[in-house]
Every structure is written in structure tokens, then in C-alpha cells.
Predict the 3D structure of the following.
Amino acid sequence: MIDARPHVLHDHYDVVVAGGGPAGLGAALAAREAGAERVLVVDRETEAGGILLQCIHAGFGLHHFGEELTGPEYAQRVLEAALDGGVDVLTDAYLLDVGADRAVKLLSGEHGVATLDTRAAVLAMGARERTRSAIRIPGERPAGVFTAGLAQRLVNLHGVLPGRRVAILGSGDIGLIMARRLTLEGVEVAGVFELLPHANGLTRNVVQCLHDFDIPLHLSTTVIGIDGRDRVERVTVAPVDDHRRPLPDRAWDVACDTLLVSVGLIPENELSRQLRLRLDPVTQGPVVTSAMETSRDGVFACGNVVHIHDLVDFVSAEATLAGHHAGLFAAGRHPRADNVRLQPATNVAYCVPHTISTEREHTVYLRVRNPLERCVLRLSTPDGVVVHERKLRYVVPPEMVNLRLRPAVLADFHGDALQVEVLAR
């Protein structure tokens, strides 16, 4: 990757972006293209690019670039585009605070503690993995328990195998990809154990990473114990009932020296909480308008810090929207207010953005709570009047549903709230 650190840190920036992954870099470039003269990206890693740097498998960029790329190739493209567009990138640095006047305080080894005047800020800090302690797996505390992302970093960036016989708890996408990656490196994968009655990763990853390599997937099953003094020796797994409670009398032991935990991501929102932004209790990310503006004027958010995405291409699309409006805000053009609230209803866990306008085109992202075949996505008023419907072949919780709404669809709607639901046909 390119060393993108600026030689000079200016006292004033039109837009400052927290996070140098694809979301942050995309937002920064969009802000520049919207007219912001000085844009700074602040990233805590030594190299910008985010989690993509360790994702050496292909499958990125089909929507955004129109071709299939590896993670590092995608990261390189967005970084080069940002640098060519005049964006400053400061690595090995932390954004500590955004003041009431949007003055930004940051910390870096190169510049120490600095306070910068800025007109708009974009939060693009990404997400982190849930750990063993987050889901309270009982048992001993031996070496050999890793999150799937940490194992991916060890293998792909440092050339170190986490173990020789691995069990994987959870069927998130990183866990599925690591099942294949470790198998290719000669590691035996004993199985993937998923608490839910369905896989929690993309269908293509279940097929390409598990089925194609004959790796067993045990649904409605979880780890109820870890055994081993110095190193993991075995894990105890058990099926669960309809309420996801383990059934110990049907448990069995799986011999292994390593347990990978792949049980989901959590938006990295410590800064959002510090800024007292309004958060969505389901996504655990900021509540945002159709311009990706948070509950605080001039502070925008995008990417996995708002909600967890399936594809980096969608992250980039969302980042472009947030950065564009941040650039306009820095130029004194405040985003027009939305006039419709989106309310998740039957079988819908959440919608992003949380509000829209009947005057502009929007892409609404949503996730369902339960799988469903031959269904319909419906927008209706709180009193049941149907405003828009779209037929869907199937929906599953791991795969985000995208709905493009044009002003013509809402031309006859004059309320202030729309319910979003996914129902069987």
C-alpha cells in the first residue's frame, strides 16, 4: 500500500473523516468532489485500507468497479482515488473528539495532540468482532481461542497458522471464509457450529467455503464448554431447543487445538456514544437521515459503523452519499430535511436510512428477522394503506435487502411515516 501520511497537518479542514477503510476513503473523495477544498482522513492503523488488507480472497468490487477484485486490490483502488483527488490521509492517529463547534481533537505519534477547525465530520470507524467473553462461553481459559478475523490476520498477513485442528463457532462470513482458507493450508476443520437454524453468512460462502470442501455445518448447535489446561484440547457442543437453550444431555466432545469464534460484528461506536448521538438499538449504530447525517448537525456516518453490510460495494455507495453531503454542508449547504420516518414492521429488523424524503431518490437497506420464500416487501401507512409493493423470491437474515425508492413511488403519499414489512405472498 502507499504511504499516505501528510507532511503537513493544517489547522483547518473542511471535512475530517474518522476511519481509513473503504467507507472513510470513499466519503473523503466524495467530499472533495462536492467542493470541499481540504479533507483529512484519520486512521489508527499504520496503513489505510481497513479490514480489506487481510481479505486476500476475490469477490469484491463487482458492483462498484464492475470487476472482481481481492480485498487489497479494492483497498488500493479507493486509496489511490482518494490521494489522486487531493485527500490527506493521516495514519497511526486517533480522532478523540468532535466539539460542539465541530472542532476536532486528534492524537498521533507524528503530531502529538492537535485540535483542528473543521466544518463537517464523517464517522467511518467500521466494526469489531464479538469475542468469547461477549457471548460468555463457559469452560477453561487456555490458549487457542481466536476470533475469526484475528485468525485471518495471522494467516494472511503474518503467515502464521492458529492451529492444526480447528472448530468454528458461528457461521458468519469471516468464519466461513476461514474454514476454506485453513483447509487450503492443510489445517483440519472439524466443523462449523451455528446457534441459529440457518447459516449466518452469505449463501455463496456457505456453498463455496463449506459444501465445496466437505466441511460439516451443524445448525441449531453451539459450544457449551472449552477444555484444556495450557492449550485447547477439546470443545463440548450441544444442540439447542426452539428457544436456543442448549440440551446438555445430547452434547458431544470435538477434539481440536483451536476454536475460532465467528459470531458477528459490532459497530465501533465509542466515539458516537461520546458525542451523544442518537443510536438505533437494533443496529447499534447512529440514527441517520437520507443524507447520512446523524442527530448532530454536520456530523455524518457511513459504512459498518452505521449497520453491518454484506458487501464492501454497498459500503462504498453509502460512503459516497455521506461524503457528498458532508462536502455540501462544509460549503454552507445544509441537507434538506426529510419528511417521512421509516418504521420496521413485520419481519423487518431495521431500515437504513431511518428517514427519507418524498422529493428525492433513495436506496433503503433492510434486514429481515426470519427466512421467507415467495414473499413481498411492502410499504404501507400506519393505518394499513399500501403505498408500494415489490415481490421477492426469498429473504434470509444474513443477506441485506436493497430497495430503490424513486419520488414517483411516493407521489401520492402525504403522511409522515411508512411501515416496512416483508410478508408471505
